[in-house]
Amino acid sequence: MLKEIGCPYNFKVLYDKRTKIHNVYSNQLKIIKNADYIYGISSVITEDYADSISERVKEGTPVELIVPLHVAEELKQSPYAEKLKILKNYKNFQLKSKNEDLKMGLIVTDKCLALNTRKAALNMT
């Protein structure tokens, strides 16, 4: 992939496709925790993701997320519905849904860009 896009300034690969999913997941939670703003696309949801995002929003961090409809529907269920109801009152939080299967995860912050792709459906809950 680097051959196609070139080597960006101050860039390093933290994990590649051979890395266990848990390492990628842990790294994403660290990225969220240390961000001054968060823009993202997520094709999965977990309680840890929801808690991390919720915490950052309550601290004043701007967060904009795009999720596919199946994740939007999952967010209407417990334990996410209660958190989402609270977050909707924060002006620094935006959640949008897309009517297609987004087979990727993307986190863009002031400090990091993280991109994950997948071939098959993945449910980490």
TrEMBL record:
InterPro entries: FilR1_middle_dom (IPR013561). Residues 22-117 form the Methanogenesis regulatory protein FilR1 middle domain. It comes from the Archaea. This is Transcriptional regulator, ArsR family. The lineage of its organism: Archaea, Methanobacteriati, Methanobacteriota, Stenosarchaea group, Methanomicrobia.
